Please model this.
Amino acid sequence: MAVVTAAPVTLSDSQLLARFAVGERSVLEELFQRYRGLAYRVAYRLLGNEADALDAVQEGFIKALAHLDGFQGRSTFKTWLLRVVSNAALDLGRQRGRREAQSLESLARSDHEQQEPLTLEDPAHRLHRGDLRQVLDRALAQLPPAQRQTFVLHADAELSYREVAEVLGISIGTVMSRLYYARQKLRALLQPWMKS
Amino acid sequence: MNVPQGEPWTPSHELLAAFADGELDRHPQRELLRRQIETWLAAHPEAAAALEAQLELERLMAATVAAEPSPRAWHRVWRRLHGSPRRRWGRWTAALCLTGAAVASAAAIVVALLVEHTAPQPPAEIPLVKAKAADNAASRGAAATVIHTGIVAGAVQRFRGFEVLEVATADEIEVVRVAGADTETLVAGRLPLVGPMVLIEPHEIDITPPANDSARTEVRKGMLWTPLPGDDDDDQDDAAAQNTAGTAVAFPIFPLVICRELRR
Model:
């Protein structure tokens, strides 16, 4: 006798939210599993450490689910969640007095004196990934919050210009402008580590 | 991201970045825009460096994506998240309940205190009044006042919500005048009064003509004296006496003596 196994039904975000709205709390886990990684990447990039990022993710999920009436389906749950998580991360960073970014120049001196300009394409001279991330985090920390949030949402959450505009409630032109200036500053700060 | 018109045309830095980001794919005139940008880039190779830097920055970002937290860390977050809204609601509920209970208790106490202060209270003890009736202004103003001289001989009645009058014995007072209007329902009787009051009508009393022109007509039955209706010019007293009489009638079971002016 042939056994037919039905493919697992994947519910859309709106379907899950509709179930959550009527008290089916079990769907929360599905939403959490679906977006926790993305939310964490954004929060981590904005905060620079795992513990704070996890707190921001938790706070973001709580706020997003507690204010679903403000969501109203005008955007996707993903962009709604990322908006709340990124705002929560920025708030958390301010509250905890995020460490002032160390002078990249001094860091560059100390590292640069010992090593050649390093890139990922050059394994022989490659910084450890953790170190490179730290350098990048410090460079990001020097950006104005609005630029940092815009850049991280585009680069880490891989949101389109339109989605970033939707998340932040700004125009696409403003997104383009913020991205341009954020990249200019990052290029300047990361010059020692970039090949181009 | 408007499609450029005319020549010479130079794309903005933001437009070049959008081109590198692949954002022009969503533009309605993407093919035309893309061709123009590619043409411009071919003519300006120095601009390619900027685009290459942008792409390198993206690669750098992609290479330094934070590692996923451990399953244990995620589990902790999930446990906090899963219980958080309910716990928060519970805390809010508890806070609201406590606040409500405190407010209700405070309101109940305030209401109780107000009631305590506003509700008529039985007099703790009626002080003895020892004064000459003629000199007592209160006796003239009050609608129903019994002035007793000497030691109070009547019973002290205490009833919540009612004016309590004391009764004097016959030999303690001499009624000089009672306002006219209340003569029709004058409270009379023998003191000490016991049981229900007796209201007398004018025909039930003896009228004593005045001894001279200056004297007023008086009526007398027992120890109570009263002028005839309309006898004097105390119109105000008349009206007050009517009220007094009415008041007296309203409490027939009380042993009251209604007077207007008393003189020992």
